[in-house]
Amino acid sequence: MLLENLIQRESITIMIITTIIMIITNIMTIITMSTTTITTITIMITITITIITSITIIITDTTTIMAIIITMDIIIRSKADRKRRLNANKDLQQEHYELSKMFPSISVSY
């Protein structure tokens, strides 16, 4: 009877130790899975922030380029308009000069 009790106690001890090891292993697995999940979420957030930053940079660059194009267009148009006005003024002066030669008694004023 003593031997059977000893074997039973040893068996129970082994079962308890095995159960404790399984619990510790499960806890370690949960910690590892949690760490992996947190790392994955952090990586996904970083990738998302990088993509959003890239899109923002593209939008900013596009806006800057459009502003430069619009500014250059305004400058070119204003210079062309100024040149047209100068040419029109010269044409008027030439016309005035020719009219005054043809009709010296008539005064043309603007």
From TrEMBL:
Superkingdom of source: Eukaryota
Keywords: Membrane, Transmembrane, Transmembrane helix
Transmembrane regions listed in the UniProt entry: 12-31, 43-76
Protein's UniProt name: Uncharacterized protein
Source organism of this protein record: Araneus ventricosus
Phylogenetic placement of the source organism: Eukaryota, Metazoa, Ecdysozoa, Arthropoda, Chelicerata
